[in-house]
Amino acid sequence: MHIIHHTEAIVLGGYDRGEASRGLALFTRAFGLVHAHAQGLRELRSKLRYALQDFSRAETHLVRGKQGWRITSAEHLTAFVPQDENAALRLRVATRVAKLLRRLLSGEEKNEKLYDEIAQAFSFLKTAPLGREYIFNIEVILVMRILAHLGYWGDDERFTPFLGSNITEGGLLQQINKVKPFAIREINKALTETQL
Q1: Number of C-alpha atoms within 13 angstroms, CB side, residue 176?
Q2: Are residues 98 and 47 in the same domain?
Q3: CA 28 centroid distance within chain
Q4: Is the terminal CB of the chain with fewer CB neighbours within 10 Å at N or C?
Q5: Are both 52 and 136 inside the same structural domain?
Q6: Coil, helix or strand at residue 126
């Protein structure tokens, strides 16, 4: 008998399996990064289809079997479907962040603070009325925070204000412009040093 695990998850992407199924990379609140099989997800009548779109957030029910994790059901919480003239850019930023998480997260290791950070940032990125520059600035701040949560970021005081405050708080997205070139250099250095 299998235990059903309930956890909130963000879909970081996936790949097609067989005729209608899909393997998904889920950043879960309870287990960290989980690779799970979603049977029949690509069928038009699938109940999972809407809840498990890329970058969406869902309440998932997972079972761990001999072949790995399997999604038994999922309840839609939020979809990542920006609707303004910068929708394509918002989607590109979410895609790059998701790829970075898939690269850096080391398997099933719980990290609730990082999960909450990503969930909040994706929600803000999807809905906030932002120009192109601020959308890029969200990406810079979010990547800094991911690296900090995972132990790949230094302790340069110039960047401290961008690591603790709520990303939606006034001024942060404008203040980052003062140190953005330095932040990008440090990000690239940290990513090189991870060797992942």
Answers
A1: 24
A2: no
A3: 10
A4: N
A5: no
A6: helix
Please state whether beta strands 68-78 and 32-38 pair in parallel, antiparallel, or not at all (unpaired): parallel
pLDDT (mean) for 90-97: 94
Tokens encoding 129: 């009325």
Cα–Cα separations (whole angstroms), residue 43 to 68, 117, 143, 170, 190: 22, 32, 34, 43, 41
Q: Are 7 and 29 in contact (CB under 8 A)?
A: yes
Q: For 151-161, how does the pLDDT look when each residue is reduced to its tens digit (9 = 90+)? A: 889 888 889 88
Question: What amino acid occupies position 13?
Answer: G
Residue pLDDT, tens place only, 27-45: 999 999 999 888 766 666 7
Is the domain of 28 the same as that of 105? no
- Residue 196's Cβ-count burial label (10 Å; 0-12, 13-18, 19+) is exposed
Question: What tokens were used for 83?
Answer: 């609707």
Q: CA-to-CA distance for 98 and 78, rounded, in angstroms?
A: 16
Query: What phi and psi, each to the nearest 5 degrees, are found at residue 12?
Result: -90, 0
Q: Whole domain around residue 72: which residue ranges?
A: 4-78
Number of residues that this document lists for the chain: 196
Q: What is the pTM of this model?
A: 0.88
